[in-house]
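quick one before i forget lol
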Amino acid sequence: MEYRQLGGSGLKVPVLSFGAATFGGAGEFFKAWGGSDVKEAQRIVDLCLESGVTMFDTADIYSRGQSEEILGQALRGRRDQVLISTKGTFRMGEGANEVGSSRFHLTRAVEASLKRLGTDYIDLYQLHGFDAQTPIPEVLGTLDELVRAGKIRYVGCSNFSGWHLMKSLAHSAEHGLAGYVAHQAYYSLIGREYEWELMPLALDQGVGCVVWSPLGWGRLTGKIRRGQPLPPKSRLQSQGVIDMGPPVADEYLYRVVDALDSLAKETGKSVPQIALNWLLQRPTVATVILGARNEAQLRDNLGALGWNLTPEQVARLDAASATPLAYPYWHQRGFAERNPPPV
């Protein structure tokens, strides 16, 4: 297993980590992702550790806390062998203060996550989204207090805009507070907007990308083809789930899948392995979260390691997945001599 520095921090993380959102399966949304119980989760953790996947990601909202609980039980007796990352910010109750990144909610959210995980510290704690109603000094001051108290080791964010992240980093630097070393972001061959603003920012500021949904919300598993029905068990088949996922035009998806199929024949690798390997060669990517439903999917995804696509093969995937840039990025590309793209 290759390890990479997490942003500008001293922490090293495996290039592949496991996403425990498939643990629990509570409710229609998370049931579509997976429903591993403790026994199956223990087997998946065993396989991860055998393969060097020593980082596990979850969140308090995943199956209303069940994901954290099952992960904690599956890791019992092995806490010192792993890194745990979890997230908070989204609503966890009906009360007015049971949502957001206020001192009130974050403090309670961390304490609750610690209890569910069965641990006294979290290696990487990330804000699941930006809270525009809580002042940034309050948010970062609270996270810094939790770091100093030893309850979390490193702080990160997720799903931030560029200005959200930069304003937060500037405040942390100015006031000597723990700053974000990771940004958990959506990035895939069919979702490359991360490259426009967030990747240049991460390169400049030393923020590691923790990639979620690297297979494009299940679209790059190799099971979706032009003219074929969706697989019977898929998050894309579940009511309400697709509406929350990243939008992808059918013809664009098929163009990318055609390129992946071509490379699969050339390399003898699976479609998911190629899509993951492409991501592992992108700037700022520290770790890619695997979201396998079962042991077979996990084993296949692990096959993304130990080899690399050639530059020519990467270029073919880049071309197949290219999309028109939004403003001001198309304008900036016209002045690439002084404002070069990150990739």
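fyi The CA atoms of residues 28 and 239 lie 8 Å apart.
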